[in-house]
Write a structure and sequence with these properties.
The chain is α/β, with parallel strands linked by helices and 481 residues long. The protein has two domains: 238 residues, ATPase, nucleotide binding domain (Nucleotidyltransferase, domain 5, 2-Layer Sandwich); 234 residues, ATPase, nucleotide binding domain (Nucleotidyltransferase, domain 5), CATH 3.30.420. The chain has 17 helices and 21 strands. Strand 2 and strand 3 form a beta hairpin. The chain is globular. The termini are far apart.
Length: 481
């Protein structure tokens, strides 16, 4: 069979990419076409996403791909981080730049939410963990502040929906990204009108919901003219990048219970479940259910992940005016004394933008009566070991909450290339860790496009293709001291 080309647009919190996946009938190869930075912009006291620049970069990547791929393009799928959105007026115009989930104002809205609806009531509808990054808190902030954009808006489009709209002209909300709003009813699979009414959020803002693997439309004539390319379909993958990660896990369904750990800027640890786990006891620890596909959900918990060491690296690079490599940091961490000091990755101070994260870590360890890590290696080892212990804690907690005894862990994302974390996680959990692919998000995006275009019929087939296409590495448990 001839090679069939799919485009993958993957937007992360700090960068974005357009990749091409060439599928030969058995396996695929990923090729990066275009990579670009995603820099939030602070204007006044608000942190924004630079959506117009991101849209420009996406179009640039599409143009480059279309001119490079001689056999044409089957479809495009777009995935992004969750919770954030843009507003469109009645004429289809964008109303301002989307506001960043780290913007402080939304994090002041918890009491406002609970004054209108109880935590139990909203949990019984959405089943999700109540992090204040969720979309509902941004909407409440707009309502409390009497933001005129909210009243001018005709439709709300989450970030992947927003990109797709400006390519196709079609307005819709994909289920996995809608689920990050806390306003999606995980049982009826639509917007919950009762919660929206209690919160005073206009129902008219929300679009029809489509499931992953749905064809949205095709590139509009104006976009094709602008880019001098032929039109092709745009398919909604599991457009929340976490859900795409889960689709991209090369799991073997051999009866052994498994969990997954997606390790990047954020870490997400979870398990697939046939139905939502609606035990109120999960709210305190911060677990929740997220929409996946094929009538499945996954039970998961968010943890501040490699963001902590990324912030450290930026501080070290600035201090030394150097391009400090990750290899250098890993080597220094490996040589540092083990199990000396620890941080709690759940402490909000580590999720915030810090100009000097190493200082924040030193202050935390001093405040908690621990030896203070001074060197780069000691600080890096402190971060890595603290994350591993958090993974152990969460895995044990998930087993208690679900009754599932986890026998293997699939560790995917950029963190799967961190050999120290992979081995230490296997050691700590006492189970095999299957590391890779690092491109799990792109692989999952691709699989959903292949389902949407009829090339494969189910996720199991997609995972077989991923195993044939991606290099993975097994880490066996050793030292548990």
């Amino acid at each position: 069979m001839k090679t069939r080309n799919f485009l993958i647009a993957d937007f992360g919190a700090s960068s974005g990419r357009v990749l091409a996946a060439g599928f030969n009938g058995e396996s695929f190869q990923l090729k990066e076409i275009h990579r670009f930075e995603n820099h939030p912009v602070i204007a006044g006291d608000t942190i924004y996403w630079d959506f117009l620049n991101l849209l420009y970069e996406l179009k640039h990547g599409i143009r480059r791909a279309a001119h490079k791929l001689e056999t044409g393009i089957e479809s495009l799928g777009i995935d992004t981080w969750g919770v954030d959105f843009g507003l469109i007026d009645r004429k289809g115009h964008l109303l301002g730049n989307p506001v960043h989930y780290r913007n402080p104002r939304r994090h002041q809205m918890l009491d406002v939410l609970l004054s209108k609806v109880s935590a139990e009531e909203i949990f019984k509808v959405s089943g999700v963990f109540q992090l204040t990054i969720m979309s509902v808190y941004r909407l409440l902030a707009m309502e409390v502040d009497e933001d005129p954009l909210l009243h001018e808006a005709d439709k709300l489009l989450f970030m992947p929906d927003l990109f797709a709209y400006f390519l196709t002209g079609v307005k819709l909300n994909e289920a996995s990204i809608a689920d990050t709003s806390m306003l999606y009813n995980v049982f009826t699979k639509t917007w919950d009108d009762a919660i929206l009414e209690k919160l005073g959020i206009p129902r008219k803002l929300f679009c029809d919901i489509v499931m992953p693997g749905t064809k949205i439309g095709s590139l509009s004539g104006s976009v094709c003219d602008e880019l001098s390319i032929a039109s092709f379909p745009v398919v909604a993958p599991a457009s929340h990048d976490t859900a795409s990660v889960v689709a991209g896990i090369p799991a073997v369904e051999d009866g052994r219970p498994w969990a997954f750990l997606s390790l990047g800027t954020w870490a997400v640890i979870g398990i697939l479940t046939p139905e939502p786990i609606m035990n109120m006891g999960i709210l305190g620890p911060g677990y929740g259910n997220e929409v996946f596909m094929e009538d499945k959900t996954f039970f998961a918990r968010n943890i501040t992940g490699l963001w902590i060491i990324q912030q450290c690296r930026e501080a070290w690079k600035t201090a030394d005016d150097s391009d400090l490599s990750w290899e250098h940091i890993l080597k220094a961490a490996e040589q540092a004394p083990p199990l000396t000091a620890f941080i709690d990755a759940d402490d909000p101070v580590f999720a915030q933008v810090q100009t000097d994260m190493p200082r924040v870590i030193r202050e935390y360890t001093a405040r908690t009566g621990q030896p203070v890590p001074e060197t780069m290696g000691a600080i890096a080892r402190c971060v890595f070991e603290s994350l591993v212990l958090k993974f152990l804690f969460c895995a044990e907690e998930m087993s208690k909450l679900t009754g599932m005894v986890i026998e293997q862990l699939y560790l995917v994302g950029g963190g799967s290339e961190n050999t120290l974390i992979c081995q230490w996680t296997a050691d700590a959990l006492g189970i095999p860790v299957n590391a890779g692919p690092s491109e799990a998000t792109a692989s999952g995006n691709l699989v959903m496009q292949m389902m949407g275009t009829g090339l494969i019929s189910n996720l199991s087939q997609g995972r077989d293709i991923i195993r044939k296409s991606c290099a993975c590495r097994a880490y066996l448990p050793g030292n548990r001291e």
